Amino acid sequence: MIRFYAPEIKLTGQLPESDSQHAVRVLRMREGDELQIVDGKGSVMTCRIVDAHSKHTSVEILDTKEEILPWSQQLTVAVAPTKHMDRMEWMVEKMTEIGVNRIIPMLCERSERKEIKVERLEKIAVSAMKQSLKATLPIIDGMTRLREILEKATGINKYAGYCDESLPRIDFTESYVPRSDTLILIGPEGDFSPTEIKMAIDMGVTPVTFGKNRLRTETAALYGLTACHILDDSQ
Question: Which CATH architecture has domain 3-66?
Answer without folding.
Answer: Beta Barrel (2.40)
